[in-house]
Design goal:
It is a single chain. The protein is mainly alpha-helical and 81 residues long. It has one domain. The chain is 58% helix and 0% strand. The protein is flat. The relative contact order is 0.14.
Length: 81
């Protein structure tokens, strides 16, 4: 994502990986829950992805976009300082 954003925005975007353990210590409401979600995604990525069906999702919403499609439409709307 960072690489695609960098290209679309013509500005270097860095990926800063944060562990679920660190995320839980951010101290805002919901940080524990988000940390748990990120840990599940990290530890059970195959199960997480297998529970999702892209074809069925597109049947439910034919306008569903992948990140490349969304970026081509919305990159110009992202404010750059």
């Amino acid at each position: 994502m960072a690489e695609k954003l960098s290209k679309a925005l013509d500005k270097k975007v860095l990926f800063n990986p944060v562990t679920p353990e660190a995320y839980r210590n951010f101290g805002f409401p919901g940080a524990d829950d988000l940390g748990n979600m990120f840990q599940f995604k990290r530890d059970f990525n195959d199960e997480f992805n297998n529970a999702r069906n892209e074809t069925f999702a597109k049947e439910l919403n034919p306008e569903l976009q992948n990140f490349d499609m969304w970026l081509s439409t919305n990159a110009s709307k992202i404010p750059i300082e």
